[in-house]
């Protein structure tokens, strides 16, 4: 943007000088008039070159600034076109027509046409150069976008590959977890059976002990009552 501002200042100075000389030429005559016309033609060339430089500078700007500066450049182009149109008017001929000398008038008109033709050719060349520069910039932008797209595509493929690896590892972990759950389920089943077996065994032991206890009580009671019965039968 600093360079563009510098071009703007130079362009403003050139257009001011062109305007000044255009106002001065009608009052001149002879070689001095011809010299001023050639100087103005040179100033027009320099102004067109500055327009081209500003256009190239705009192509390098950020997209959010490009439109703002492009509008300013369009205004400068229109201003230069108006000055060019003014410069082509007969009052800015190399010399004022002399009715007494038609041959001299024709020569001077040819000189003026040569100067204007040269200016038009320069303007056309600058315009073509500017179009080529814009096309080159568009091609460079296209290549840059293609490279960025390729880079983004590469990152996406890499991310997809990483996601695939993560999914594969997750699936392996799920399989391992499922296998662990199956082993745990079998272990729990075995432990449950053992607990039931131990419970049944414990109940059986307790039942046996209770039975033995009652049998023992019965036997003790019976043994205690048997002598009494014998003694009572023999007084």
Structure described in brief:
With 235 residues, the protein is mainly α.
What is the H/E string?
HHHH
Residue share in β-strands: under 5%
Identify low-pLDDT runs.
Answer: 229-235
End-to-end CA span? 146 Å
Give the number of helices: 4
What is the total tally of β strands?
0
Helix content: over 70%
The major β-sheet equals:
none
Mean pLDDT comes to 79
Secondary structure class reads mainly alpha
What sort of overall outline do the alpha carbons produce when their principal axes are compared? rod-shaped
Tell me the Rg in angstroms: 56 Å
Report on this model:
By secondary structure, the chain is mainly alpha-helical. Helix content is 89%, strand content 0%. The protein contains 4 helices and no strands. The protein starts with a helix and ends with a helix. The C terminus is likely disordered. This is Vesicle transport through interaction with t-SNAREs homolog 1A. Keywords: Coiled coil, Golgi apparatus, Membrane, Protein transport, Transmembrane, Transmembrane helix, Transport. One of its GO terms (biological process) is retrograde transport, endosome to Golgi. One of its GO terms (molecular function) is SNARE binding. It is found in: Endomembrane system; Golgi apparatus membrane.
List keywords for this structure.
235 residues, mainly alpha, rod-shaped, disordered C terminus
């Amino acid at each position: 943007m600093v360079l563009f501002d510098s071009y703007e200042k130079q362009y403003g100075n050139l257009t001011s000088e062109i305007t000044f000389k255009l106002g001065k030429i009608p009052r001149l005559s002879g070689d001095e008039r011809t010299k001023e016309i050639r100087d103005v033609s040179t100033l027009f060339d320099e102004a067109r070159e500055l327009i081209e430089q500003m256009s190239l500078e705009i192509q390098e700007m950020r997209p959010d600034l490009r439109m703002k500066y492009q509008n300013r450049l369009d205004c400068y182009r229109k201003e230069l076109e108006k000055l060019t149109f003014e410069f082509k008017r007969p009052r800015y001929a190399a010399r004022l027509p002399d009715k007494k000398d038609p041959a001299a008038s024709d020569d001077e008109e040819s000189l003026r046409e040569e100067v204007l033709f040269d200016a038009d050719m320069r303007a056309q060349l600058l315009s073509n150069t500017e179009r080529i520069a814009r096309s080159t910039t568009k091609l460079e932008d296209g290549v840059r976008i293609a490279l960025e797209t390729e880079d983004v595509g590469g990152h996406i493929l890499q991310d997809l590959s990483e996601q695939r690896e993560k999914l594969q590892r997750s699936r392996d972990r799920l399989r391992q977890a499922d296998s662990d759950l199956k082993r745990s389920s079998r272990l729990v089943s075995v432990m449950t059976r053992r607990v039931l077996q131990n419970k049944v065994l414990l109940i059986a032991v307790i039942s046996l002990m209770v039975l033995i206890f009652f049998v023992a009580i019965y036997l003790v009671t019976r043994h205690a009552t048997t002598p009494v019965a014998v003694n009572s039968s023999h007084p």
